[in-house]
Design goal:
The complex is a heterodimer of chains A (414) and B (356).
Chain A (H helix, E strand, L loop, with lengths): L4 H32 L5 E5 L6 E2 H9 L5 E13 L6 E9 L1 H8 L2 E5 L6 E4 H7 L6 E5 L6 E5 L2 E4 L8 E4 H8 L5 E2 L1 E5 L3 H10 L4 E4 L5 E4 L5 H12 L10 H45 L1 H9 L4 H37 L3 E2 L2 E2 L6 H26 L4 H7 L12 H4 L3
Parallel strand pairs in A: 4-10, 6-9
Antiparallel strand pairs in A: 1-12, 1-13, 2-11, 3-4, 3-12, 5-9, 6-10, 7-8, 13-14, 15-16
Helix pairs in contact in A: 1-8, 1-10, 1-11, 8-11, 9-12, 10-11
Chain B lengths: L1 H9 L3 H35 L7 E4 L9 E2 H5 L6 E10 L2 E9 L17 E2 L10 E6 L6 E4 L17 E2 L2 H7 L6 E2 L1 E4 L4 H9 L4 E3 L2 H42 L1 H9 L4 H40 L12 H27 L11
Parallel strand pairs in B: 4-8
Antiparallel strand pairs in B: 1-10, 1-11, 2-9, 3-4, 3-6, 3-10, 5-8, 6-7
The chains are: A alpha+beta (414), B alpha+beta (356).
Chain lengths: 414, 356
């Protein structure tokens, strides 16, 4: 009754829109983590701006054999000129020790080098903004008034979101962020033993926050009281300068933390709303499909089929149509997301969003699409089945005609 | 006849009510999304407003050293400013920049340190304690010798990099003769809006020397650009929705169509009736969705905070957010309703018994 080409095409369209949005939204959700932390990386960050993380800690951890690689880093937020269109583009500028950064990111320099006064640019950013080796780049201070101009010395590639960033020396980054001569904002670490790292930091009285590979923050030698946390969050939310007047940096670190929470809310909200939207679209398509089969349903009811039998019949067809439409729709949706990825169409805060295309997500999306399809169909069927069989059969007798004819008024010349 | 047609357009039954709810949910999605992003944008703007924005910089081109501003403009700048000259040079394999300032009101504390015939490297300059530097630039045929001042300690600056070299304007114009009657960039203190206004009038744009403010501004502009994906997908769903319901509606109302045609309504009138009905349904759905969207955005934020997420998000509604969904509703109503309306207009009456 329902398995018809036009119904399947309509459902595919709705499911495609849903399934293309899921990997993109999940990509947005994982962006802050991939930008500031990275896959399988542990980070050590400062508790607050009055307790900085020292560069020397990175060397100490390596020398003591506590970790495999420790990369001291400073991230700064600025903007650069897009050489392709002359407009301004937001960009994350990262102060690094290049070799350690490249090791953490499993990245390599594809062209140029990183000697004195280096500026390395990610290959995606280079391509997007038309900035090549030898081009000058002017950067302003991030949280403090400053200017900097460097010449691009190399292009690196990591196949991660870092490819949208600019790397400069720690000294230059300190200038942009106005932080102390020996300070960094975080140390990113490669290690197989997170607990050993935490134990070492605890025993040696370091006052830091360790963010584990799974994203769990572990305060080391630091406890924030409930009142302090609430005051900090309210201060951040309502931009209270009294609560956050230490320096511009306070706003940055707070905003990065709060921004991640906000993105999680927005993404999960959008996925739920997208599912509702798909449900509505499929319901509309199936409503018309079931409506066009009212007579068949009426006949089945008239010859003795009870509601349960008709329901089972409809469910079987709904399952078939949902599986077909979901399979095709999800595949097309994920392919669309991959195309979006390859073309770098979605950019937020200077970072190309990389859709999360994973088998697990594909399977989940596929099953959600089937559930949405079946639920929509059963919702429509339950409404139709409340009508009497005789009414269903009678209504359909008024068929529309396709050929145009004169009206009676025209025929009689009125 | 007009009353009959008006009643047909404004008729709301269970099916149409369900469609209105469906459209309302689609519009809710658009409004909710846009109000959350706008709220995030505005919230960030408020916080960014608390930042010290520092100096404003005016330059023309991709970089400070490539920029060329006419001297004539600079002569008439009102109030405090510093006009700077910058050239890229190479000192024994190390790339550096040589800076000169015309700083009549001492914005920077370099005034007495810049000597006509000597240069002063910054404290971070790699080559230290040498009497002179051999420098080459893209504009010089052979290396030029710069005598290093030993009257002052290397300069330090919070604003300029510490590994540049300070020089006189004459020195810079030797290193880059194309800057003969030009300057590279101008620095304006934030307490001199007259200078900014003057430069704007002359076609120059100032940028802030604190990048995070523009980082957030530009970042949110990118996100707002991406929102068109949300708007387009919702519009497609609304069109699908309205097309399907109007197809059902026109089939259900074949007897009504026959009656109005019997009474003399032309096919054009039938098209108008169903198109107006589609627009009416979408319009009502859009208004309802507008209200739902505002409520939903606030509800999501409130609920998420109850669930332990914390954020800087306070959803906001602007005239644009109000008017766009209404425009989408009308557009989707017209697009989704046109085909069913056209098909309805083709309904024919074979005999008067069909109607009577």
């Amino acid at each position: 009754m329902l398995i018809h080409k036009k119904n399947i095409i309509g459902m595919i369209l709705c499911i495609m829109l849903f399934s293309a949005s899921v990997p993109i939204l999940m990509g947005i959700k994982s962006s802050p983590n991939s930008i500031f932390k990275g896959e399988n990386v542990v980070t050590i960050s400062q508790v607050n701006t009055t307790t900085p993380v020292l560069t020397s800690l990175a060397f100490e951890l390596e020398d003591e054999g506590i970790v495999d690689v420790a990369s001291p880093e400073i991230y700064a937020f600025s903007y650069v000129i897009n050489r392709k269109n002359g407009g301004h583009e937001p960009v994350i500028v990262r102060g690094v020790e290049p070799e350690k950064f490249l090791s953490i990111e499993n990245a390599h320099v594809v062209e140029g080098d990183y000697e004195n006064n280096f500026m390395l640019i990610g290959d995606e950013l280079s391509e997007r903004l038309g900035i090549q080796i030898g081009h000058g780049v002017t950067i302003t201070g991030s949280t403090t008034p400053a200017i900097l101009e460097l010449t691009v010395s190399g292009i690196f590639s990591s196949k991660t979101s870092s490819d949208n960033q600019i790397l400069i020396s720690l000294n230059y980054a300190r200038k942009l962020m106005s932080i102390g001569e020996y300070d960094v904002l975080m140390i990113r670490i490669k290690t197989d033993d997170e607990n050993r790292l935490i134990d070492y930091l605890t025993e040696n009285d370091y006052n830091v926050i360790v963010t584990k590979k799974d994203g769990t923050p572990v305060p080391v030698n630091h406890e924030e009281t409930y009142e302090e946390r609430i005051a900090r969050e309210l201060g951040a939310k309502y931009s209270d300068p009294e609560k956050f007047s230490e320096s511009n940096q306070s706003f940055v670190s707070t905003f990065v933390q709060r921004g991640v929470g906000t993105i999680n809310i927005v993404v999960l909200g959008f996925i739920a709303l997208n599912a509702i939207l798909t449900f509505i679209g499929i319901t509309a398509i199936l409503a018309r499909a079931v409506f066009e089969r009212r007579k068949d349903i009426g006949i089945l009811a008239a010859i003795g089929a009870d509601k349960k039998t008709i329901y089972i019949l409809l469910l079987k067809e709904l399952l078939v149509i949902s599986i077909i439409a979901s399979g095709i729709g999800v595949v097309i949706g994920f392919i669309s997301a991959e195309i979006v990825n390859n073309m770098g169409l979605i950019v937020a805060f200077g970072v190309t969003i990389q859709p999360t295309i994973e088998l697990f997500l594909f399977i989940i999306t596929f099953f959600i699409a089937i559930i949405i399809g079946c639920t929509s169909g059963l919702f429509v069927s339950s409404i139709i089945l409340t009508e009497r069989p005789s009414k269903l059969m009678r209504e359909i007798e008024d068929k529309e005609e396709v050929a145009e004819a004169e009206t009676l008024a025209e025929a009689i010349g009125v | 006849m007009r009353n009959i047609l008006a009643k047909m357009v404004l008729k709301i039954n269970k099916r149409i009510f369900a469609t209105i709810i469906g459209i309302a949910l689609c519009v809710m999605y658009i409004v909710g999304t846009m109000s959350m992003v706008t709220g995030l944008h505005e919230g960030t703007k408020d916080t960014a407003a608390l930042f010290d924005k520092g100096f404003l910089i005016v330059y023309d081109g991709y970089t400070l050293s490539e920029s060329e501003l006419d001297s004539d403009i600079i002569e008439d700048i009102p109030g405090r400013y510093a006009a700077c000259l910058l050239v890229v040079g190479n000192v024994t394999g190390i790339e550096t920049r040589v800076l000169a300032l015309e700083d009549p009101t001492s914005i920077f504390d370099f005034g007495s340190k810049i000597l006509r015939d000597k240069v002063l490297p910054g404290s971070g300059f790699e080559i230290k304690n040498v009497p002179f530097l051999n420098i080459t630039t893209a504009f010089t045929q052979s290396p030029i010798i710069l005598n290093v001042s030993n009257d002052y300690d290397p300069y330090t600056s919070a604003f300029f990099p510490d590994n540049w070299i300070l020089a006189s304007e004459d020195t810079i114009r030797i290193l880059n003769p194309t800057l003969e009657d030009k300057y590279s960039f101008i620095v304006i203190p934030k307490d001199n809006p007259e200078a900014l206004e003057y430069l704007k009038e002359n076609g120059y744009t100032a940028v802030q020397s604190v990048g995070i403010v523009d980082f957030f501004e530009l970042g949110f502009s990118q996100i707002e650009g991406n929102l068109w994906g949300v708007v387009i997908s919702s519009t497609v769903i609304i069109i699908i929705l309205i097309y399907n319901i109007m197809r059902i509606e026109t089939q259900y109302r074949v007897p009504d169509i026959k009656i109005i045609k019997y009474l003399g309504a032309s096919p054009k009138t039938v098209i108008y009736v169903f198109l107006f009905q589609a627009v009416f349904i979408c319009g009502v759905g859009a208004v309802l969705g507008l209200a739902l969207g505002i409520v939903a955005a606030n509800a999501i934020v409130a609920l998420s905070q109850l669930l332990g997420f914390s954020s800087v998000l306070v959803p906001q509604v602007t005239l644009y957010i109000v008017s766009l969904p209404l425009a989408i509703g009308i557009f989707a109503g017209l697009i989704g309703g046109i085909l069913p309306a056209y098909k309805a207009s083709k309904t024919t009456i074979r005999t008067s018994r069909e109607v009577l």
